[in-house]
Amino acid sequence: MNPAGSEAPPQHSPQSAGAGPNLRVRLLRWCINLWVVLHFSAILAAAGIIGPTPGYVVAAWDLFHPYLDALFLNHGYAFFAPEPSPSMLMDFAATRPDGSLVQGRIPDPRVRPGLLYQRTLLLTEHIGVLPDEFREDWYRSYARHLCRKYGASKVHLTLLTHFPMPMEMVRNGGKLDSPRSYRKLDLGEYACDEP
């Protein structure tokens, strides 16, 4: 007791004064670490769902699938492994009114920047998943674009399916771009004045 007879106010230790903000910082760090672990687990589940897969990977996929879709992280890991699908390419020959010919391939690997090449690659890749009733419209849209781009009067299109080379052929000296790895489908000629 102090001489006046009243109690002294309680003394606060320096440790207890900073406990509130310190606890909030620790909780925030814990939440961020938990999110990082769950995020990378979701990415691993997306890559691991490519079959054949054990049941626990399927269960993880079912858990993380909505999260991956919401953030648009559900990429096509099947494109890379374990069995890559064939690539779709398109060769064209655009004939100008003066008779000159412009030939090329979509996508053109010389296109820069690389993201533009990736965009055109994805456009041709979608041909492989189109329903049959939409394919002709898709081909006509390519022809119209090429007509405008090159000032052509007609465009001839050829669809190429590029199959991955089997490992045995590569080990025996086969080239990844061997002509034997392509299958051609002649799509025909499109007049540039067609709708």
Note down, in words, how this protein is organized.
The protein has 195 residues and is of the alpha+beta class. It folds into two domains: 16-78, no CATH class; 87-191, no CATH class. The protein has six helices and four strands, in the order H-H-H-E-E-H-H-E-H-E. A four-stranded antiparallel β-sheet has the order 2-1-3-4, covered by helices on one side. A hairpin with a 5-residue loop joins strand 1 (87-95) and strand 2. Helix 2 (19-48) packs across helix 3. The N and C termini lie far apart (100 Å).
How would you summarize this macromolecular structure in one to three sentences?
With 195 residues, the protein is an alpha+beta fold. The chain contains six helices and four strands.
So what's the oligomer here?
Answer: single chain
Please give the domain count. Answer: 2
* Number of helices, counting only DSSP H or I runs of 4 residues or more: 6
How widely separated are the two ends?
100 Å
Beta content comes to 15-25%
The whole-number mean of residue pLDDT values reads: 83
How many whole angstroms does the radius of gyration measure?
30 Å
Low-confidence stretches: none
Largest sheet: 4 strands, antiparallel
Percentage of residues in helical conformation? 40-55%
**From N to C, what is the helix and strand string?**
HHHEEHHEHE
What strand line-up does the widest sheet have? 2-1-3-4
Shape annotation: elongated
